[in-house]
Amino acid sequence: MIEMISIGKEVISDYRCFFCFARAFERMLERDNLSTEEKKFFARDMFGLFDKGKNDLSIPELSRKLHVLFKHYSNNPDPYQDVKKSSNDLVLAMYPELKNMVFNSANHFDTALRLAIAGNIIDFGLSNDFNLQGTIDKVFNSDFAIDDSVQLKQALFEAKTVLYLGDNCGEMVFDKLFIETLMHPNLFYAVRGAPVINDATVDDAKYVGIDVVADVISNGYDAPSTILDHCSDEFIDVFNRADVIISKGQGNLEGLLGYKNKDIYFLLMVKCEVIADTLNVKKGDFVVKKQD
Predict the structure, then answer these.
(1) Statement to judge: residues 128 and 158 lie in one domain
(2) CA-to-CA distance for 33 and 212, rounded, in angstroms?
(3) Are residues 91 and 226 in the same domain?
(4) Domain ranges, residue 138
(5) In-domain check, residue 52
(6) What's the predicted TM-score (pTM) here?
(7) Using one digit for the tens of pLDDT, what is the confidence trace for 114-135?
């Protein structure tokens, strides 16, 4: 069994997380056609979950419960379906140019890695407004705030099995390019077990063609994270067999930061002050962090 050092309460008990959720669901309520009465009851139930979440729920678990609640009130099993498709289409249209950028660069690995991390900006759980091209430009003119990329490259070279934990739609087109660059013969790409926010599912992964460059698997759970206690047996088998695990995004980091005895590398753009404080970096920084 994998041990866990629990830092979750430190991250999750932060009051800023609850304000972030409130803003996110306010945007969703404004967008969807719920009645005034339904919005009122949703808000009541949401703040009830906030009260419970103070002590009993991790942030990924609380996020899942809130999105299950919203699906119930909106009567929509995939509220971000259109957003996910438009995000994938946006980056697929950029894909030929991005691929040329990688293969015309002096360092294919570093360029593809930077693009994969820049793609992490596509996150509708935090904001509907992001500057993708600006983030791509920034990632090539910035140092990584935490840079374990040399260790990651060597670990991937030595690994027999790699597990890549996907995050958001749109972003995963950048992941596809990074995976193509790695050319690892035994790489699994894991996605969510059911729709949640704009996180990728198996259908989304197939839509952008990741199943052509990796073995796509579901983690079996509909949290915007990787919570091992709830993941499927298939996923856990691959997780345990993997020599290297690439964890994309803040959600996966929240679920796995603190787990020992696995070679986990967290790739992300830091998009909130809570994660910035946890990692001792700044909001907006780019990170390649090996699990301590």
Answers:
(1) yes
(2) 38
(3) yes
(4) 81-290
(5) yes
(6) 0.93
(7) 999 999 999 876 666 678 999 9
